[in-house]
């Protein structure tokens, strides 16, 4: 193994399979989120400097706009992580006179509390630390720091994340707002078999690790991997009435279509299908093509998320 490969392996440098459109959207989301956090916080609090916008919100912006479907980015992790950590940080600052010890306790106890409450959010550690080392302006706020700026900033960036990500159907935030999933509902066996959710949860428990994936994300990942292992493209015979399919692309080209009518001739390659665009460009429009043409367009089948 050459030196370059050793360094690549040591630092875990891997190519990122993310489209340019996705990277651009993440960048614009971070700019929008932090700009509005700073502007609106100033209106509500009138604060300046470090009090105006706790730097931990910058870290939250990375999660909400770069990995909006990640487990550590979801609403309970975001809100609970910041609020509980802020409370711990203020408590340590007020009760522990030694600043270095107070800083260590604030971050460590915040991590522990986030674990207990099931809301691990890495920027919460910075929120707790800022309560200790943020200087007189933050210390004077006392427990008011939990509400303003922390809770206000959290609500602002949460709201911006919902609205901004809603503009891009393939990356709704929170993940519960996604309309389609790659995992078939229970009882659907005509596609590659899906690994049951409880099996994934048990595997995570066996590893005793925190991963920035929701269980649903892991289930989708395994299902897609098995489907790709079995075939490269859909065949005309796999295009069925009432089912949903995506072209698998990202950005402005991402699309989901539903087969709403069909013509049977005995030769799937020549049969006609009528489809409706349900996500992406031309949403709501209907058109027709041969079943073979549709299969050539489709990358995989997707499934509507069942309402709670």
How would you explain this protein's 3D organization?
The protein is built from 11 helices and 6 strands. By secondary structure, it is an alpha+beta fold. It folds into 3 domains: 3-171, no CATH class; 180-230, no CATH class; 236-304, Roll (pyruvate carboxylase f1077a mutant fold), CATH 3.10.600. Helix 2 packs antiparallel against helix 3 (56-66) and helix 4 runs antiparallel to helix 8. The mean pLDDT is 85.
What is the compact description of this entry?
The protein is an alpha+beta fold and 308 residues long.
Number of distinct beta strands: 6
Helix content: 40-55%
Give me the number of helical elements.
Answer: 11
**Domain count:** 3
Taking Cα atoms only, what radius of gyration do you get, to the nearest Å?
24 Å
Mean pLDDT: 85
Structural class by helix and strand composition? alpha+beta
- Low-pLDDT stretches are none
């Amino acid at each position: 193994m050459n030196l370059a490969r050793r360094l690549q392996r040591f630092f875990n440098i891997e190519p990122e399979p993310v489209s340019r459109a996705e990277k651009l959207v993440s960048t614009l989301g971070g700019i929008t989120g932090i700009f509005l956090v700073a502007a609106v916080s100033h209106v509500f609090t009138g604060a300046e400097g470090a009090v105006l916008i706790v730097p931990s919100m910058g870290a939250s912006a990375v999660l909400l706009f770069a990995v909006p479907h990640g487990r550590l980015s979801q609403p309970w992790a975001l809100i609970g992580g910041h609020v509980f950590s802020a409370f711990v940080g203020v408590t340590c600052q007020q009760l522990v006179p030694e600043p270095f010890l107070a800083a260590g306790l604030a971050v460590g106890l915040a991590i522990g509390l986030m674990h207990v409450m099931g809301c691990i959010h890495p920027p919460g550690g910075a929120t707790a630390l800022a309560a200790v080392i943020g200087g007189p302006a933050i210390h004077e706020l006392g427990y008011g720091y939990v509400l303003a700026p922390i809770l206000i900033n959290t609500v602002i960036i949460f709201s911006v994340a919902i609205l901004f990500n809603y503009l891009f159907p393939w990356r709704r935030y929170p993940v519960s707002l996604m309309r389609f999933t790659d995992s078939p509902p229970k009882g659907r066996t005509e596609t590659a078999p899906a690994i049951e959710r409880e099996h994934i949860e048990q595997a995570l428990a066996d590893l005793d690790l925190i991963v920035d994936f929701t269980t649903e994300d892991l289930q989708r990942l395994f299902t897609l991997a098995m489907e790709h292992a079995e075939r490269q493209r859909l065949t005309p015979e796999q295009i069925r009435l009432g089912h949903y399919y995506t072209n698998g692309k990202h950005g402005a080209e991402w699309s989901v279509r539903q087969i709403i009518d069909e013509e049977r001739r005995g030769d799937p390659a020549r049969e006609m299908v009528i489809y409706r665009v349900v996500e992406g460009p031309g949403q709501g429009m209907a058109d027709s093509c041969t079943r073979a043409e549709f299969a050539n367009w489709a990358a995989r089948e997707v499934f509507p998320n069942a309402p709670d």
